[in-house]
Task: inverse folding
């Protein structure tokens, strides 16, 4: 990459490359045939809790409602999420994580932990910790600006 590119472009380019490399690495380690979109939804539901409509999840992940519906159907078929009618709107659905979904999420975290520990040993926990505030700020900024675009 050319050093004359703006530093913000270079940072986002590195993040994109890291995302691709980390995603491929993660998918090889995920248990029970989980794919990254499945794990991402489970992780989202564990992290934020509650009931989520497919439309709200699709917006959060910036995918189509159809793509999210497909992911939820696959997770529901495996017993990892429960999808039920929204009591406030019979046409809508709500998804929530199940006990088995939480179990497989913990299993996935356990499966990737040794690999992450190895990375942390090489780069040090403090370097990971130093990167976190900037990455959170950048995520927040990008997340907030997508709703204005």
Result:
């Amino acid at each position: 990459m050319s050093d004359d590119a703006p530093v913000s472009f270079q940072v986002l380019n590195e993040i994109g490359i890291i995302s691709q490399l980390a995603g491929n690495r993660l998918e090889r380690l995920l248990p029970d045939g989980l794919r990254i979109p499945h794990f991402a939804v489970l992780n989202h539901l564990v992290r934020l809790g509650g009931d989520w409509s497919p439309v709200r999840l699709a917006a959060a992940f910036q995918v189509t409602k159809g793509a999210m519906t497909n992911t939820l159907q696959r997770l529901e078929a495996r017993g990892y999420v429960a999808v039920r009618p929204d009591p406030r709107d019979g046409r809508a659905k709500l998804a929530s994580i199940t006990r088995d979904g939480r179990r497989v999420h913990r299993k996935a975290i356990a499966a990737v932990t040794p690999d992450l520990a190895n990375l942390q040993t090489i780069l040090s926990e403090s370097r990971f910790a130093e990167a976190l505030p900037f990455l959170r700020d950048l995520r927040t900024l990008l997340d907030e600006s997508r709703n204005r675009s």
Q: What stands out?
A: The first helix runs from residue 7 to 29. The mean pLDDT is 93.
